[in-house]
Amino acid sequence: MPRRSTRTIRYDSLFDEVSLRLPLFEGLSGDNIQHLSALGFGRGFLTASLRARLRKAGFRDLSHLAQSSPEEIARIRKFGPVRVELIRTFILDEIAHWLPSARQTHAVAATRERRLELLRETQIKRLALDADKIAALGFAGSSCADMAGRSRLNLLGTGLVTPIDVDCFVMTLARFLGACRTSARYPGDGAREALSAEMETTEARRAALLADQDREWEEAAPARDWRRIGIVRRV
């Protein structure tokens, strides 16, 4: 059965559509990526058939998924919005096992706010959009966040733009945020030293986690509701 186009799905705002085109996680450190790569797809998390679907689609491991967009992942058969969010949660949990502060830094709300803040700080005139249409919509002199806060249905209801125009707005906003790489904004040097100390103290925990991982993976939870969507949780 063909997937529904984003044009036929009602989102609260253009920003919600833009977010689907951006990576699940931004600003991941080299250690984060290496850690996720070493886990593969997290044995005991996804069923063998789902892992096979991911590999067939070209996804290598959890680090690849973490740096991919919800839209890219959802193109794979059997991977809808619910499963995409479960993948996001699982990856965040894995990162937080050895770097607890990542839970706040990379939470959905924190990532969303960083992106919105960047849009608020950027005037819409900086984007390569049709100036006449932007003015007709009343966005002249506004920030990118002002336009991103409007919904597709609302913009089309003005009769001033077409669905193709709105697609262009979404694509341009997504490219802008993607190019800016809205990485986590860490505090100053003192806080960085604290973060470094935290990483050192959690390194032993990480080593222990990896040492015990094979055993934990084999002790997957008995079938519960997770089975219905092809996912097994570890206990």
Computed over alpha carbons, the radius of gyration is 20 Å
Strand fraction equals: under 5%
Low-confidence stretches: 182-192, 220-224
What is the 3D shape? elongated
Helix content: 55-70%
Counted up, domains total 2
Distance between the termini: 35 Å
**SS-based structural class?**
mainly alpha
For the secondary structure, the number of strands is: 0
Mean pLDDT: 82
In short:
The chain is mostly helical and 235 residues long. The protein has 14 helices and no strands.
What does this protein structure show overall?
By secondary structure, the chain is mainly α. It has 2 domains: 11-21 and 107-185, no CATH class; 27-105 and 208-229, no CATH class. 59% of the residues lie in helices and 0% in strands. The longest helix has 30 residues, at 189-218. It is elongated and about 55 Å long. It starts with 13 loop residues before the first helix and ends in a 7-residue tail after the last helix. The relative contact order is 0.16.
